[in-house]
Amino acid sequence: MSTVLRIGTRDSELAVWQATLVQNQLKELGVQSELVYLKSEGDIDTITPLYALGVQGVFTKVLDAALLNNRIDIAVHSMKDVPTQMAQGLQQAAVLKRANYKDIFVYKEESTPAALGYNNGKWNGDNDDNSLDFTIATGSVRRIAQWLHRYPSHKVENLRGNVNTRLRKVKEHNWKGAIFAAAGLERIGLRPATSIDLDWMLPAPAQGAIMIACREGDEFALESCRSLDDESTAICTCVERDFLSALMGGCSTPISALAELNNGEIYFKGNIVSPDGKYKAVVEKRLLKEQWHEAGRLAAASILANGGQAIINSIRKTGLTTNGND
């Protein structure tokens, strides 16, 4: 087997940046590598809303196939895009230290933050502008649901494409602004000054984290990446993904989760919101670090018993299914 690791990556600027980060870190460890560029279904179809594509792993399955077919040795993913059940024959090799997990709102008019209830660097408890002519854009059903829960009269339009394309579309369309993942824009130096953190919006499970995947049984790839693994990030993202996995139940709903590890304790927050934003169930838990293997499932059981199951049942009844990936 070649000692040069073949790193599979999507060919977007952000994906290549992430793969290059891994390549540089491997180089510091004395591991030689090369990048192999691939295009995912999610990159090819930039018009259809993500939830309408109707599949999980829309951004990852082409890399999964390349791994299983031995065209590449490791794949670099935005971890929030990776299905909770990885393809048979593949395994998680490492999770890099997490970057900014927050969602941000990129706005066009200076008056917009105040109209949303954001003043002097803080969000007000009340929504100052709930007018019908306020339109924002996002392709994420999770972000749509949380936005409509806070601003039920606003309109939301579909926004797809890589981060560069989406930023361009914001300038071209008559929207007040659009929602992005902070990490994606910050990593490639594109976060505009006209942006604010959505502190009230819970992120997608594993948002801001980068995962490296390899084939099961590939000890060279696994050992090469092992030193890149950040324990705290790996634990927190596992808790979040366990929470998501336990709630899937045959349909995917707008599910958000954030686990933080401090002083030997896991602080977890999660929610389920109906796609129209009308109904919301929440859970908050504090557990010991040693409980991380069961923390996500415990949080899922709690939210199901406190309104989450009713939301899921309602979605099943209407026949509406949505894709959980952002």
TrEMBL record:
Q: Looking at the keywords, is tRNA processing present? A: no
Q: Which coenzymes or cofactors are required?
A: dipyrromethane
Q: Which Gene3D superfamilies match?
A: Periplasmic binding protein-like II (3.40.190.10), Porphobilinogen deaminase, C-terminal domain (3.30.160.40)
* Keywords of this entry: Porphyrin biosynthesis, Transferase
EC code: 2.5.1.61
User: Which InterPro entries has this protein been placed in?
Assistant: HemC, Porphobilin_deaminase_cofac_BS, Porphobilin_deaminase_N, Porphobilinogen_deaminase_C, Porphobilinogen_deaminase_C_sf
- PROSITE patterns from the entry? PORPHOBILINOGEN_DEAM (PS00533)
| Record-annotated Porphobilinogen deaminase C-terminal domain positions | 235-299
Describe the location of the Porphobilinogen deaminase N-terminal domain by residue ranges: 5-220
Check the record and name the PANTHER family matching this protein: PORPHOBILINOGEN DEAMINASE
Q: What is this protein called?
A: Hydroxymethylbilane synthase
Q: Which organism is it from?
A: Flavisolibacter ginsengisoli DSM 18119
